[in-house]
Design goal:
The protein is an alpha+beta fold. Helix content is about 15%, strand content about 45%. The chain has a single domain, classed as Mog1/PsbP, alpha/beta/alpha sandwich (Protein Transport Mog1p, Chain A), CATH 3.40.1000. The protein is built from 2 helices and 12 strands; from the N terminus they run H-E-E-E-E-E-E-E-E-E-E-E-H-E.
Length: about 170
């Protein structure tokens, strides 16, 4: 019964994503030298810092978090982490064996890219992981579906519009 429910849930996600039409998010545009993303109202974009530095940021990783105001809020709010791979031939995808309750996401087109991925739970934290498959520049997005007692849905209009807004420069 559990597998049946997961299959039905994944089909609902695919249908909802297909209905989104790839519309772009309205909100604040955040850009680095290599990519940009739009943060809807109530979301905040944070750059990732170079390991060991409190001032030097990475251009290839951004975090977008719902309800966050300060960088520390990333630890207790759900959101997305976007990784950019310039001219990569493959994106490093996490092995499904790292997750419990894995459900494949049917490939979908949103924004400028076609995506594929899966949902699963790791360390009691539900996630959706997706990556682009049809471009020279590649992206991987990890959606933290639950954090700090707050929840997101992969088919949430804001999540879908953020993913649709992702673009390489």
């Amino acid at each position: 019964m559990k597998k049946f429910n997961l299959t039905v849930a994944s089909l609902v996600v695919v249908v909802l994503m297909a209905g989104c039409g790839g519309g772009k998010a309205s909100g604040d545009v955040y850009s680095t030298e290599v990519m940009s993303v739009v943060a809807p109202s109530g979301w905040k974009v944070f750059p990732y810092y170079v390991l060991g530095s409190s001032t030097e940021t990475r251009e290839d990783i951004l975090g977008v978090y719902k309800g966050a105001k300060e960088p520390i809020d990333q630890m207790s709010t759900p959101g997305l982490v976007i990784n950019y791979f310039s001219e990569a031939k493959i994106v490093m995808t996490p092995p499904k064996s790292w997750y419990e309750d894995v459900v494949d996401i049917e490939p979908f087109t949103l924004g400028n890219y076609t995506w594929e991925g899966f949902t699963g739970t790791r360390s009691d934290m539900p996630q959706a992981i997706c990556w682009t498959t049809n471009a020279v520049e590649l992206f991987q997005v990890v959606v933290w579906l639950e954090n700090g007692g707050k929840k997101l849905s992969f088919d949430d209009a804001d999540v879908q519009s953020i993913i649709a807004s992702i673009s390489a420069k």
